[in-house]
Amino acid sequence: MGVDMAVLIRAKRVDRKIRDLAKQNGETLTEAVEKAVDDRLTATAPKRKGRVDRVGLAQLIAEIDALPRRNEHLSDDEIVGYNDEGHFD
User: Fold this and answer.
1) Alpha-carbon distance values, 74 to 14, 28, 79, 80 (Å)
2) Are 89 and 77 contacting, i.e. CB atoms less than 8 angstroms apart?
3) Tens-digit pLDDT profile for residues 32-86
4) Who's near 36: CB < 8 A, 6+ residues apart?
5) I need a labelling partner for 8 at 20 to 30 A (CA). Which of 24, 28, 54, 60 fits?
6) What does each C-alpha distance from 60 to 38, 43, 55, 71, 76 come to in angstroms?
């Protein structure tokens, strides 16, 4: 489909880091670079301005809902500290 491309790494320290990473993980140089780039892209994904990440929000809500509940005998209002009149105690 595409043309194979080569990447030239001129900095010896960077070349050494790539080789160390590949060896440490039992990968080829290409695999090590690809995974490192994928990890960095994921970690630095551009933030959308003005839009809600509905999928991310749904995942976060699911994670929070899956947390063990403490003080199950108390209502949410009691946990927050509201009394029967809607005021903090």
Assistant:
1) 56, 55, 6, 10
2) no
3) 999 999 999 988 877 767 788 889 999 999 999 999 878 788 877 777 777 777 7
4) 18, 21
5) 24
6) 22, 17, 9, 22, 19
